[in-house]
């Protein structure tokens, strides 16, 4: 580091002053270093030697992946310090150090986020009364360690695992891109708490991190055994020691306000249980039953791991869009519709059953198709339709309201086909279900063209939306409020009145409508999330994706 002439003079003055103090037998007891005789330029405009930057990077192989980014960062700022000013560490440096320590304390266990070297240097500095002194050899080292750590931390905490690893975990939403150089330059230049306010992560990540801290604190304070009982359920008016135990936990979780240690099942407990059931994705009936006790008995450590798994997923997704978009959360069995980034409405959905799981991906919704045909996909054709056609061609088609067509769209008589020659893979024709009340897609479908042949659609099986666990489809997503979705998508076109939409849905003739502005659709998989009321929710790991990701994060 090059030290300006006046910095040397200032340092010399300090040394002479200290020597005089020692000779007189006195001892300096000031808690803060007097910097009034230093100019602002001495630290804020101080530069780090470019040779030191190169030497540091060469001797710290752990940061090889970021060497060029770090060099570019300093070149762009003419090698001026980012983390050090005339008072020592900047406010932003302290904020960043605290953020890394908090993440480690609350479950993000990764030694690369806070190396022992940086830990020792910063711990010494933060508890020191005198802080950094001019010419201190630790200055350039701390500067470089913080910058290198920023890139390492950002890649891990804000970027997550690699895109290829995400695909291996069956997540096909493109990983967001972060310009770490520009982000660092922006964050260290701000006076507010930029490391919390400007993190390049989806808001859900911040909310889950806050809930993680609460659960970690609760785990450290509360030690309880599983609640056991031979009674099947308890309801309002009952009395039992089990009820008192349930109250204690619901109070700790924030579902039951106040402190009520009685054994009586009160109206307030009924409300609290419904709140807990809603957060856990359990049928809301206000009773203490096996599902409720199983959820209450789940160890807090297991809940913390689920939050960490979902925080990892949230590192991959884009920062929350401010445009219109649709999000389907598979484990929640819900579709959420956002208008200019704000939640407009939600409804139940039916998703793919295990073995025919709905894929996690994103595409843009382009078409609303009223009174749609349903082209039978190869899997269903092989397993269900062709066996039926082989048994009774015309009869099967009539019962299912189906027809067979060639590539030109011309109807083909089943009597002209030798079905015994074909399987699902080599059948040369299209089997499709005609528009109408029996159509498996209902009266409208919504297309966001993709290689997985997945789309949103209506369904005649309306009763399934009343089920608590709704994984019944072959992979596509059935929407409980298809008319509402059609109205929302076409709301800016005044010609599409409610009556016109009703007529189109019941016309019995397929009609494609192009959406004026394409709407992003995100099919996601979150088993822990904070809802619009600020409540922490958990859902079952429907497809076993949590188990896979958890194994890669925590080991088996």
Describe the 3D structure.
This protein is an alpha+beta fold and 556 residues long. It has 20 helices and 16 strands. The strands form four sheets. Strands 3-4-5-13-11-10-6-14 form an eight-stranded mixed beta barrel. Strand 3 and strand 4 form a beta hairpin. Helix 4 (67-76) crosses helix 9 (180-188), helix 6 crosses helix 7 and helix 15 (300-316) crosses helix 20 (545-554). The protein starts with a helix and ends with a helix. 31% of the residues are buried.
Q: Show unreliable segments.
A: 1-43
Annotation, overall tally of beta strands? 16
Number of discrete helical segments = 20
Radius of gyration: 31 Å
In round numbers, the mean pLDDT is: 85
Global shape: globular
Strand content: 5-15%
Percent helix range: 40-55%
Distance between the termini: 47 Å
Described by strand count, sense and barrel closure, the largest sheet is: 8 strands, mixed, barrel
Q: Return the structural class.
A: alpha+beta
| Order of strands, widest sheet | 3-4-5-13-11-10-6-14
- Described by its quaternary structure, the protein is single chain
How would you summarize what this structure contains?
This protein has 556 residues and is α+β, with helices and mostly antiparallel strands. The chain contains 20 helices and 16 strands. The strands form four sheets. Strands 3-4-5-13-11-10-6-14 form an eight-stranded mixed barrel. It has a three-stranded antiparallel sheet with strand order 7-9-8. The chain has a two-stranded antiparallel sheet with strand order 1-2.
């Amino acid at each position: 580091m090059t030290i300006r002439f006046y910095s040397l003079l200032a340092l010399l003055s300090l040394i002479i002053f200290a020597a005089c103090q020692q000779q007189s037998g006195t001892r300096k007891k000031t808690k803060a270093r007097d910097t009034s005789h230093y100019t602002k330029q001495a630290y804020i405009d101080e530069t780090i030697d470019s040779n030191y930057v190169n030497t540091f990077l060469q001797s710290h192989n752990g940061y090889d992946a970021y060497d060029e980014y770090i060099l570019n960062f300093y070149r762009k700022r003419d090698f001026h310090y980012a983390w050090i000013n005339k008072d020592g560490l900047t406010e932003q440096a302290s904020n960043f150090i605290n953020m890394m320590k908090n993440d480690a304390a609350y479950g993000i266990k990764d030694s690369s986020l806070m190396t022992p070297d940086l830990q020792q240097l910063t711990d010494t500095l933060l508890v020191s009364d005198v802080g950094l002194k001019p010419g201190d050899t630790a200055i350039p080292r701390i500067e470089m360690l913080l910058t290198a750590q920023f890139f390492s931390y950002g890649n891990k905490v804000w970027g997550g695992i690699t895109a290829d690893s995400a695909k291996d975990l069956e997540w096909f939403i493109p990983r967001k891109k972060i310009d770490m150089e520009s982000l660092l330059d922006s964050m260290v230049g701000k006076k507010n708490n930029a490391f919390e306010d400007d993190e390049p992560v989806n808001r859900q990540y911040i909310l889950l991190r806050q809930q993680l801290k609460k659960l970690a604190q609760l785990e450290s304070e509360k030690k309880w055994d599983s609640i056991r009982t031979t009674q099947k359920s308890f309801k309002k008016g009952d009395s039992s020691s089990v009820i008192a135990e349930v109250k204690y936990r619901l109070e700790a979780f924030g579902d039951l306000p106040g402190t009520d240690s009685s054994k009586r099942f009160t109206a307030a407990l009924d409300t609290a249980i419904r709140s807990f059931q809603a957060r856990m994705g359990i049928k809301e009936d206000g009773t203490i039953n096996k599902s409720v006790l199983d959820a209450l008995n789940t160890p807090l450590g297991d809940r913390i791991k689920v939050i960490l798994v979902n925080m990892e997923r949230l590192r991959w997704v884009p920062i929350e869009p401010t445009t219109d978009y649709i999000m389907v959360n598979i484990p929640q069995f819900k579709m959420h519709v956002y208008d200019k980034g704000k939640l407009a409405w939600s409804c139940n959905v039916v998703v793919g059953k295990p073995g025919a799981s709905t894929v996690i991906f994103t595409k843009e919704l382009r078409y609303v198709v009223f009174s749609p045909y349903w082209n039978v996909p190869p899997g269903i054709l092989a397993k269900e339709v062709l066996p039926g056609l082989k048994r009774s061609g015309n009869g099967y088609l009539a019962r299912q309201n189906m027809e067979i067509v060639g590539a030109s769209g011309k109807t083909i008589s089943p009597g002209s086909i030798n079905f015994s020659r074909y399987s699902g893979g080599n059948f040369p024709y299209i089997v499709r279900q005609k528009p109408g009340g029996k159509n498996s897609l209902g009266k409208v479908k919504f297309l966001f063209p993709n290689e997985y042949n997945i789309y949103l659609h209506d369904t005649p099986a309306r009763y399934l939306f009343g089920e608590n666990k709704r994984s019944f489809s072959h992979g596509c997503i059935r929407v409980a409020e298809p008319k509402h979705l059609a109205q929302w998508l076409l709301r800016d076109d005044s010609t599409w009145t409610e009556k016109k939409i009703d007529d189109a849905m019941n016309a019995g003739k397929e009609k494609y409508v192009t959406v004026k502005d394409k709407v992003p659709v995100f099919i996601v998989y979150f088993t822990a999330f904070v809802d619009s009321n600020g409540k922490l929710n958990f859902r079952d790991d429907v497809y076993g994706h949590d188990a896979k990701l958890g194994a890669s994060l925590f080991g088996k």
